[in-house]
Amino acid sequence: MKPNPSRNVPMRGWLVGRDAFGVSCAAPRSSNRRAGGGTTIWRWLDFCSLFLGLALCSLAESPAIDFIHVSDTHLMDLRGVHPRLVEARKHYAPATDAFRQFLTHQLRTLRPRPSFVIHTGDVVDAFGFEAAGSGSVRSQVEMARRLLSRSPVPLFVALGNHDLQLYRPGELALAVADQSVAGLARARWIRAFDCFQDGTYYAFQHRVGARIYQFVVLDNGYRGAGQRGLAAGGSTAWLAAEQLHWLAQLMAACKDHIVVVALHIPLGEDAGSRPVRDTLAKCPGVALVLAGHIHSEALEPIRIGGRQVLQVRSGAFALSPSNWRRIRLSDRHIELFEVGNPGRVIRTLELTPAGTGVVKAQGH
Fold first, then answer.
1. Tens digits of per-residue pLDDT, 130-154?
2. Burial class for 354, CB neighbours closer than 10 Å (0-12, 13-18, 19+)
3. In degrees, to the nearest 5, what angle opens at C-alpha 331 toward C-alphas 2 and 14?
4. Domain spanning 66-362: which superfamily?
5. Cα-based distances in Å from 212 to 118, 119, 154, 172, 254
6. In whole angstroms, what separates CA 35 from the centre of its chain?
């Protein structure tokens, strides 16, 4: 998944190289040198041509990779589901075909093609639904796997609360969410998706020029936290102690990296977010937090340690198929594009010189 290293490609009559971004840099090669006193001038012309080629290389665009942020697709297959649940949840049903179209058409034709997609949770509307007869319909993860396998680029997923719950008909509400199935749901996701081969929280890296970008994907979709969750109105998500321990070790090991965090429920000032923010503060290179859950788009500053870090939401794809965002990473800055408009940059985060791992300032 790392970009190909620079390499020289010999071609007839030309010295051709490629920088790390894939931009050709060429200088003419003289194949028929004149004999005698003309040799010196031909060598001088070769030197000038090579110097010009190297200058063009240095002016070429810096190394960069693109990726797509998407969230809250709420994919579903309502066949065999209890009629009351179908009535309650069918408003998201069109998103399933829309996301299939996004993967098979828009993502394939996007130029430059993104290197990967990060999905920040609620991939499906529910892990399962109570059935129209007895039992429950628990085929949603497999349905999502078949659909997401159409992606032309790798997908990295963070689990959301809907990915870990079962819907049952309620007495007052049409649908009641039950997260007692969270353990079973996680096991099903791990079997179905390669990104979860080491568990439902994980990390991966990309090198861009002199930079190493460390991506950290957290699992904060479980909201059934007993009285602690209820005390915050049921909206607080808590990371298990072992996930925080893993995160602390990872942050201590990547102090020279630029860190991009992906999780479902956004970080705030609540009791569940505080230990996550405190742990992320151990690394000075945390540059960006990608989140979902709220279904609206936003670029909002949050405090991590003594710094302001930008938290990015790109809206719910289930509400509109234009709710996705291109993000471009280079060795000098991070560019955030307008939701649904991959050609318009709306915010640039400037980075300090490579190796320090600290975001210097936010641009326009």
1. 999 889 999 999 999 999 999 999 9
2. middle
3. 70
4. Metallo-dependent phosphatases (3.60.21.10)
5. 17, 21, 19, 51, 9
6. 60
Mean pLDDT of the region 96-109: 97
Burial of 186 (0-12, 13-18, 19+ CB in 10 A): buried
Crossing angle (nearest 10°) for helices 140-148 and 182-192: 30
The whole-number pLDDT of residue 353 equals 78
Distance CA 128, CA 243 (A): 25
The residues spanned by each domain of the chain are: 7-59, 66-362
Nearest Cα to Cα of residue 141 among 156, 155, 126, 161: 126
What number of other Cβ atoms are within 10 A of residue 361's Cβ? 10
Q: How buried is 132 (Cβ within 10 angstroms: 0-12 exposed, 13-18 middle, 19+ buried)?
A: middle
User: Which residues are paired to 324 by β-bridges?
Assistant: none
pLDDT of residue 219: 97
Burial letters for 242-252: b for 16+ Cβ neighbours within 10 Å, e otherwise? ebbebbbebbe
Measure the CA–CA gap between 26 and 227, rounded to whole angstroms. Answer: 66
Polymer length of the chain: 364
E strands within 40-183?
64-70, 116-119, 128-130, 136-137, 155-157, 166-168, 176-178
Q: Averaged over 233-245, what is the pLDDT?
A: 78
What band does 55 get if pLDDT is binned at 50, 70 and 90?
very low
The kind and range of the H/E element at 102 are none
- Candidates 231, 230, 222; CA nearest to 201 is 222
pLDDT band at 237 (very low <50, low <70, confident <90, very high): confident
Tokens encoding 110: 């996007």
* Structure tokens given for 20: 């790390």
**Ramachandran angles phi, psi of 351, nearest 5°:** -110, 150
Which pLDDT value is given to residue 27? 35
0.85 exceeded by the pTM?
no
68, 138, 65: which is closest to 103 by C-alpha?
Answer: 68
Please give the pLDDT value at position 233.
39
